[in-house]
Amino acid sequence: AQSVTQPDIHITVSEGASLELRCNYSYGATPYLFWYVQSPGQGLQLLLKYFSGDTLVQGIKGFEAEFKRSQSSFNLRKPSVHWSDAAEYFCAVGPPNFGNEKLTFGTGTRLTIIP
Amino acid sequence: GAVVSQHPSWVICKSGTSVKIECRSLDFQATTMFWYRQFPKQSLMLMATSNEGSKATYEQGVEKDKFLINHASLTLSTLTVTSAHPEDSSFYICSAGPSQNNEQFFGPGTRLTVL
């Protein structure tokens, strides 16, 4: 069965500091991996996704993620966070042709930014 | 990216009444729409998958008679919460796909409060 684990429920980072959010997955085949961000009371916005190829993927808002098959991980990073990055972040895994297939989400990591 | 809308964005109703939530794909035809439920500070829980023109597939533990899903066209799916009770209060999010790029997109969510 597929699953996604986000070990950190809540992370607090100072503005301007670097950020890494962890994601581990379990999937029976080649995974399609995603990071979404959710601001309070809002829907989900796709930050980036990994299908194949270069294991370091770039996304919007200055985020990047690295796929490490040996560690079953897909950690999200940002070199310098901004106050506007405070939100909930979800890692998800899905099959190929995910356009009409369900995604499995992690439990989320809430990011707080302090001045 | 493609646009998915939800209406209403928030709704308050009395216990025992029914509430209908719409999910529309505005610029593509979605053969598949997913309905998720999200409790405060928790992840998204898939409730059901709806395919245009056929009956929805419900996840285990989701009452199909309580959460009626209709996907009558390629751009519209509706979720009706029947005989709503306070425990049905939640954030409901839909996603639709596949787009031309074989992706799925999330709606902004609907906040339901049952008094």
Which features would summarize this protein structure in a list?
heterodimer, A: 6-stranded mixed sheet, 4-stranded antiparallel sheet, 12 strands, B: 115 residues, mainly beta, 7-stranded mixed sheet, 0% helix, 52% strand
Task: Give the topology.
The complex is a heterodimer of chains A (115) and B (115).
Chain A: E1 3-5, E2 10-14, E3 19-21, E4 24-26, E5 32-38, E6 45-50, E7 56-58, E8 64-68, E9 73-78, E10 87-94, E11 104-105, E12 109-114
Parallel strand pairs in A: 2-12
Antiparallel strand pairs in A: 1-4, 3-9, 5-6, 5-10, 7-8, 8-9, 10-11, 10-12
Chain B: E1 4-7, E2 10-13, E3 19-25, E4 32-38, E5 44-51, E6 57-58, E7 67-73, E8 76-81, E9 90-97, E10 105-106, E11 110-114
Parallel strand pairs in B: 2-11
Antiparallel strand pairs in B: 1-3, 3-8, 4-5, 4-9, 5-6, 7-8, 9-10, 9-11
Describe, in plain words, how this protein is organized in 3D.
The complex is a heterodimer of chains A (115) and B (115). Helices cover 0% and strands 50% of the residues of chain A. By secondary structure, chain A is mainly β. In chain A, strands 2, 5, 6, 10, 11 and 12 form a 6-stranded mixed sheet that branches. In chain A, strands 3-9-8-7 form a 4-stranded antiparallel sheet, with no helix packed on it. Chain A has a two-stranded antiparallel ribbon with strand order 1-4. Chain A is globular, with a radius of gyration of 14 Å. Chain A starts with a strand and ends with a strand. Chain B has 115 residues and is mostly beta strands. Chain B is 0% helix and 52% strand. Chain B has no helices and 11 strands. Chain B has strands spanning 4-7, 10-13, 19-25, 32-38, 44-51, 57-58, 67-73, 76-81, 90-97, 105-106, 110-114. In chain B, strands 2, 4, 5, 6, 9, 10 and 11 form a 7-stranded mixed sheet that branches. Chain B has a 4-stranded antiparallel sheet with strand order 1-3-8-7, with no helix packed on it. In chain B, strand 9 (90-97) and strand 10 (105-106) form a beta hairpin. Chain B is globular, with a radius of gyration of 13 Å. The termini of chain B are far apart. In chain B, 38% of the residues are buried. The mean pLDDT of chain B is 92. Chains A and B meet through loops of A and strand 5, strand 9 and strand 10 of B.
